[in-house]
Amino acid sequence: MVDAVLTGSKKESVKEPSFDELENSQFLEDALKDNKREGLVLAVKARSVALVCVGIFVIFMVGDWSVLYYEALIACFLLNGLAQLKFGRVGRSRVELLLLALDLALMTVILVVPNPFDDEVWTAALQYRYDGFVHFYIILAGATLAYTWKTMFAVTWYTVLFWMLGYFWAIYQQPFDPVISETIAEALKDHPDVLEQLHPDSIPLHARLQELFVFAIVAGILALNSWRSNNLLMRQAAAARERANLARYFAPSMVEHLAGRDKPLGEVRSQSVVVMFVDIVGFTKMAEMENAEKTVMLLREFHALMEKAVFDNNGTLDKFLGDGLMITFGTPLPGEDDAANAIKCALQMTQSLETWNMKRQSHGEEPIKVGIGVHCGDAVLGDIGSERRLEFAVLGDVVN
Fold first, then answer.
1. Residue 162 has what pLDDT?
2. 329 and 341 in contact (C-beta within 8 Å)?
3. pLDDT per residue over 156-167, tens digit each?
4. What is the DSSP letter of 19?
5. Which of 97, 127, 126 has its CA nearest to residue 110?
6. Quick one: how far is CA 7 from the chain centroid?
7. What is the pTM of this model?
8. How remote is the C-alpha of 344 from its chain's centroid?
9. Is-cis flag, bond preceding 332, omega within 30?
10. Average pLDDT of the chain?
């Protein structure tokens, strides 16, 4: 039996975790990993389907063997997507940034470099101004599925860099047919704005800057939405953490019930409960004879066995008391089988201890003896405190 007399139980109130605190929590780490993996898989699947469709469409658009140039670049996109799926992870990753930059570099090559196998006379300037910049939005959209809001800025800077490199590369390439160029220039010499748009060697810079400006705005909006989604994910991680905290005290079935309630545990009330105390007999002397590490390991194994028995029988683990436990049945919601569950729990505890002691004795260790006390009666229980700081307490003579 337990010698100590308790007048009630209190659990330390835990404030809702801040985002900074959650950044170091296991729940957030797991949530971010799952979210990143799910986003990568979805992005790779989406891009693979899109690329296959584009590959088929290009065959009909080109109509000759020079289409192999575009098919080879499409294959490179597919392989790069698989590489992103393989090396993707939460947090900063130079490999991922490199692969993302490679996506944008490949897109720039497709939009700027003319097909070398095409018999048509076509220059880099004509290729560059062919309104292909809109294809960068496909990569940007895919990045929103798999990457954080911070990566949106990297996509923007990479796009600006590669597109402007393509611009300077294109203006220094071989010009169009001089005769045709001179004819067009002579015909439109009195209309410089029209000439700038129609001359085959002209690449209006202001149009390129406008493309990049609009792209940066869209990327910023998507980054804002990604940041908002990230905050939502962190709140979900906080909810998972709160549910895990509930699971430390209540059986899994009770956790699911409490998680669906508008109020955590209900108003303060009086009801019938079954209270159980479990205590290791002679623990003080045992602790004096063992070192601290072995003592802690013993308590951890003991608590794990007792905790399983409690939850297997729909009990509530009110608190650990050093080498003992306080357990209640019928909290927060009473049931017809509370007393029976308490007895079943006590029997399971003794059976678990017998098995554990056999294992201990086989290793030359002393068996563990426990005292189990059970009492039933009316108690006061429920939420106490303010709305921001709540405690669940079980009070009264039945506890004493």
1. 93
2. yes
3. 999 999 999 988
4. H
5. 127
6. 43
7. 0.52
8. 40
9. yes
10. 78
